[in-house]
Q: What sequence folds into this?
């Protein structure tokens, strides 16, 4: 499921990120925000008055906002958290 | 440069670097002053336990050493010793947010790998505790290989300890300078996560205060309404809260004028002091309360963490004109003053986005326009309510702000389709935790604003006004001719008048236009000086307030046209200077001045002709 389709306040973790859909600097910024395969995410708020707005989501312990086209590049899997996937590495 | 050892504060945005900087340096700070001195260099003096002084710099926050915006580039260049005019720091204080350790440790590891003497400030441990985290600084220190000190910057906890560690670092031999090849990003991230997990002793589910508040404030409809309501309250407050202190100030200015009249014999010195200094500068000073109220709101929005939410809410709208929500933050600070607003665009990574934001920033109604709006509105708009306790004067003020905003959005849209055409930028932003600002911090911020304003009044506004007074007082007009028309300034204004007569401006306004390029408030002091000079022999006229005298000389249509002009005109020299610096040249600066003058002329004209047609002329 894409991050854009993830129901609000449902814990999930990142399965896959389509880096090619992001510009290099956007990809870098997302990585710096801790968004990477295996990270835990939770969609918190969908913005948008007068048009579709950005999505605020929790990545680890941080809340970040991104536009829908970027969130659509992130595939997530629901589950308790992403700790399992991340800890293997 | 001071020749003292240099210590740099580095870390992610919102880690608490500035709070730590304030706590460590106290009042001994060197703040940037506009224009001229760049603001990103904020330095101060810190005393080590043995009394040795050290220079501390507060670097702009960044997430890594790969810069994404001009602001972040400075940080990287300083740390790597590449920044012109700055020596390489002798030591680093890496500030990390204890409640967001995984993420902040990644950058900390990147910095530690540089090999400079480093101490880590594990800041915001109080917030970590609030979130149910208990951390062990000793484990963290062992894993990172550098000293780690727990701090709470806003309560000055851990500062002595931090100073002691710095003392130890500064006493050692200078470290060899390394720029080790960066390790693979993912490897560092995993390492950071491992260390964070090791350092967390206990973790209980967090209370999610911020998320709960955000449910309301980021709600697509409610959040938008709240933002508008906040801005509306802000503009109402500027009028209603300010009236009592402003009346008091006005009383003082009048008393001072009377004192001048009573102590000095009539003559040129008396006239100069009364008309040029007390009358002119005094007319501006009375707006200090309004300006402070405005800054109070803006400082509050910033300090609470709401500013990032405003950006989130506005993103969809800003996207429509080719900008991102991030641009809303510099635009909102431009309500206070376009100079810091334009400098704040440095956080915008996309160059075209940034340029567009700079070009429209002067359209945000800055506090220097308040005296002009305030004077005209209180003279021509009746002080009555239009229902629900909403004052008509505040409403007109609000509308002027709205015109500026709408004008800016249309301008951005047009610019993005033409001269700053390009791919639309994205919106990626951290939403900081909500914080209740500390009153001291707010007071310091307001104090600094008051000093800047009074300095302006005492220097550029006073100086312009003195020059103006001289130009208006000579040569002396023969009987029956108005001094303000006969004088040198009057003749220059006569030339300008030819250009602006079609849009309803009279000679008073023509006289004020040129000096108000120095600072917008001068428009008010200039008009005050004109009337003081013309009223010289007319004792009755002198007793009247400036507003009353305006009512006798201007039509409503002219007053409205004058307001419309001020919504758009590029006016002040400081804005032009900072634009030239930030766009690195005259090309875009000239473009900005040109398009804003055209807009101002058109807006004033349309307002005047419409008002005359409606019978208000
Ligand atoms: N509770 C708490 N708040 C802090 C602490 N340090 C900083 N803050 C607050 O966190 C916010 C961001 O701090 P600031 O110094 O501006 O961060 P910077 O971006 O790193 O300069 C401000 O509202 C500070 O008052 C701390 O130790 N505890
Ligand atoms: Mg800061």
A:
């Amino acid at each position: 499921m894409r991050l854009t389709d993830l129901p609000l306040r449902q814990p999930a973790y990142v399965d896959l990120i389509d880096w090619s859909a992001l510009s290099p600097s956007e990809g870098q910024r997302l990585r710096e925000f801790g968004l990477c395969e295996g990270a835990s995410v939770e969609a918190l708020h969908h913005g948008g008055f007068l048009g579709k707005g950005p999505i605020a989501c929790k990545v680890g312990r941080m809340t970040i906002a991104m536009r829908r086209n970027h969130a659509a590049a992130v595939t997530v899997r629901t589950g308790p958290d992403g700790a399992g996937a991340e800890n293997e590495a | 440069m001071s020749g003292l050892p240099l210590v740099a504060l580095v870390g992610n945005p919102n880690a608490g670097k500035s709070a730590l900087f304030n706590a460590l340096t106290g009042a001994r700070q060197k703040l940037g002053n506009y224009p001229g001195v760049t603001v990103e260099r904020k330095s101060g003096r810190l005393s080590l336990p043995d009394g040795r002084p050290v220079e501390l710099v507060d670097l702009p926050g960044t997430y890594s050493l790969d810069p994404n915006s001009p602001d972040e580039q400075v940080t990287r260049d300083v740390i790597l010793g590449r920044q012109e005019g700055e020596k390489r720091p002798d030591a680093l204080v890496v500030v990390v947010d204890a409640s967001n350790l995984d993420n902040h440790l990644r950058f900390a590891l990147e910095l530690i790998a540089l090999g400079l003497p480093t101490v880590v400030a594990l800041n915001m441990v109080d917030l970590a505790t609030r979130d149910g985290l208990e951390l062990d600084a000793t484990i963290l220190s062992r894993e990172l290989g550098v000293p780690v000190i727990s701090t709470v910057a806003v309560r000055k906890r851990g500062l002595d300890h931090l100073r002691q560690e710095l003392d130890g670092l500064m006493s050692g031999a200078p470290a060899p300078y390394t720029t080790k090849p960066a390790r693979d990003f993912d490897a560092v991230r995993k390492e950071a996560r491992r260390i964070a997990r090791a350092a967390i002793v206990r973790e209980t589910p967090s209370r999610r205060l911020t998320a709960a508040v955000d449910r309301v404030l980021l709600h697509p409809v409610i959040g938008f309404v709240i933002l508008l309501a906040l801005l509306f309250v802000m503009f109402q407050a500027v009028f209603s809260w300010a009236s009592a202190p402003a009346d008091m100030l006005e009383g003082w200015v009048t008393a001072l004028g009377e004192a001048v009249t009573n102590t000095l014999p009539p003559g040129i010195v008396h006239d100069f002091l009364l008309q040029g200094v007390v009358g002119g500068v005094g007319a501006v000073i009375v707006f200090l309360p309004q300006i402070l109220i405005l800054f109070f709101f803006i400082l509050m929005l910033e300090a609470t963490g709401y500013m990032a939410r405003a950006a989130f809410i506005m993103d969809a709208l800003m996207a429509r004109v080719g900008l991102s929500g991030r641009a809303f933050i510099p635009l909102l600070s431009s309500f206070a003053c376009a100079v810091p607003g334009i400098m704040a665009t440095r956080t915008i990574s996309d160059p075209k986005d940034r340029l567009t934001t700079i070009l429209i920033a002067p359209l945000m109604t800055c506090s220097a326009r308040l005296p002009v709006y305030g004077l005209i509105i209180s003279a021509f708009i009746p002080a009555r309510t239009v229902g629900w306790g909403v004052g008509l004067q505040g409403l007109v003020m609000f509308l002027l702000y709205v015109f500026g905003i709408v004008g800016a959005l249309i301008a951005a849209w047009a610019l993005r389709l033409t001269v700053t055409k390009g791919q639309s930028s994205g919106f990626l932003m951290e939403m900081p935790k909500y914080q209740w600002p500390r009153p001291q911090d707010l007071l310091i911020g307001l104090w600094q604003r008051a000093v800047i304003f009074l300095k302006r009044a005492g220097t550029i506004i006073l100086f312009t006004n003195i020059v103006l007074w001289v130009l208006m007082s000579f040569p002396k007009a023969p009987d029956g001719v108005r001094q303000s028309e006969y004088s040198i300034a009057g003749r220059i204004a006569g030339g300008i008048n030819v250009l602006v007569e079609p849009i309803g401006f009279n000679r008073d306004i023509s006289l004020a236009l040129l000096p108000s390029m120095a600072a917008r408030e001068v428009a008010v002091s200039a008009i005050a000086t004109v009337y003081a000079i013309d009223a010289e022999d007319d004792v009755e006229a002198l007793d009247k307030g400036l507003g009353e005298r305006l009512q006798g000389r201007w039509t409503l249509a002219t007053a409205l046209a004058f307001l419309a002009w001020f919504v758009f005109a590029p006016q002040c020299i400081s804005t032009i200077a900072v634009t030239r610096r930030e766009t690195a040249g005259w090309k875009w600066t000239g473009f900005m001045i040109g398009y804003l003058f055209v807009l101002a002329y058109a807006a004033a004209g349309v307002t005047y002709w419409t008002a005359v047609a409606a019978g208000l002329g």
